[in-house]
TrEMBL record:
Annotated source species: Aquilegia coerulea
GO biological process, one term: protein transport
Ranges annotated as biased composition (Pro residues): 65-76
Protein name per the record: Mitochondrial import inner membrane translocase subunit TIM50
Subcellular location per the Swiss-Prot or TrEMBL entry: Mitochondrion inner membrane
Membrane topology: Single-pass membrane protein
Upper taxonomic lineage: Eukaryota, Viridiplantae, Streptophyta, Embryophyta, Tracheophyta
Length: 385
């Protein structure tokens, strides 16, 4: 009877805790122990208590583990199927957007705003010319409605494109064009009558050179003979500095140059007065408010950064070479031209020196002229004899 009770208890605990192998092994060992020896009731009760405690802890562990989530149901066949009309509509909208973008880009790159407006004028007005008579059939009215809608939408898109392009070009023009159509104030009437020449000078590698080193940072050096050059030039010409640098960089340098030359520089034009084109800042001499025949632009890169090459006098760029005399050698040419007054057109004078070094060629021509002048009195004296 006692063994039967123990067997039933064993079956109960095994079925209740079938996932706990340690518990099963403990129960089997207990059964063997009870069958081999006759222990006392107190020993059985003690082992039974320990068995209950272990079984209760295993039950707590098994109950604390959450159950696995239920499997997601497979998508229905109705969700997998897409409407062919919706796919075709998406493809049509995407194709129209790509085509409109490509057309707008090509028109922007190839034509100006006025050219696009002129070429599309007839197309934009064609939608307004559609008229349908009152006695027309419903089919004709429907066709006219469709045609008007098909022409109106592209025409409105072109109008939007033109308005947007004009607004963008106006904003860009504020940064790319010179700040004013008259960068310099009007010249005095007396100076205009005398035909005073306006000598426009570049700054970097023409009058100065800026160098940066790790030990000393930025340093600015004056070209040899600069103070004498500006002082003598201001006595016969109007001196203007025209550079592509910012005001914060130019102003302190001009103040120092004026201190050394007695205020020879009348005006200074910085980056805001240049024209930004093709990623570069150009000097636009036509905006100086001066007669082009009286303007000469001197720079180490004159033909590269000016829009009027006929007014340019290129000289050798200066990069800290010792013994440079370019500015001093250029003074006789500028003083000679300034004495000619209104009769000397700087564009014609510079065209005569095109492809030559101005200082060297001018010195050679002056020497030849002096030799001819010396020979004239000798010939005249020989004829008198």
């Amino acid at each position: 009877m006692y063994r039967m009770i123990q067997s039933r208890r064993l079956v109960y605990y095994i079925t209740k805790n079938k996932n706990n192998n340690n518990t099963v092994n403990t129960i089997i060992n207990k059964k063997k122990c009870y069958s081999s020896s006759s222990s006392t009731v107190s020993r059985f009760s003690t082992e039974e208590d320990s068995f209950h405690s272990s079984s209760s802890s295993s039950n707590f562990d098994s109950e604390s583990i959450p159950p696995p989530p239920p499997p997601t149901p497979p998508p229905s066949s109705a969700a997998k199927k897409k409407s062919p009309f919706l796919s075709l509509l998406k493809f049509g909208i995407f194709s129209a957007f790509i085509g409109a973008t490509a057309t707008a880009g090509y028109a922007t790159y190839t034509y100006t705003t006025d050219q696009v407006e002129e070429l599309s004028k007839e197309f934009r007005e064609s939608g307004d010319k559609i008229t349908v008579e009152d006695d027309a059939s419903s089919v004709e009215k429907y066709k006219a409605l469709l045609y008007s809608a098909a022409m109106t939408v592209p025409a409105k898109c072109i109008d939007i494109y033109l308005d947007l392009r004009r607004s963008i070009e106006e904003k860009v023009r504020e940064f790319s064009e010179p700040s004013s159509d008259k960068l310099l104030p009007d010249m005095l009437p007396q100076e205009q009558m005398m035909g005073i020449k306006t000598v426009v000078l570049d700054l970097n590698e023409t009058l100065i050179y800026s160098n940066w080193t790790r030990e000393r940072g930025w340093r600015t050096f004056k070209r040899p003979g600069l103070d004498i050059f500006l002082l003598r030039l201001a006595q016969c010409c109007e001196v203007v500095i025209y550079t592509d640098q910012m005001d914060t960089y130019v102003t302190p340098i001009i103040d120092r140059l004026n201190q050394g030359s007695g205020g020879a520089i009348r005006f200074c034009l910085s980056r805001s007065a240049t024209k930004y084109q093709d990623g570069k800042h150009y000097r636009d001499l036509s905006k100086l408010n001066r007669n082009p025949s009286n303007v000469i632009y001197i720079s180490g890169h004159a033909l590269e950064n000016a829009l009027q090459p006929e007014n340019c006098a290129p000289i050798k760029p200066w990069k800290l070479e010792e013994g440079d005399t370019t500015l001093i050698d250029l003074l006789p040419f500028l003083e000679f031209v300034a004495r000619q007054g209104p009769a000397a057109d700087m564009r014609q004078v510079l065209a005569a020196y095109k492809g030559c070094d101005i200082t060297t060629e001018f010195t050679k021509r002056q020497r030849d002229m002096l030799e001819k002048q010396k020979q004239r009195p000798a010939r005249l004296f020989g004829r008198l004899n």
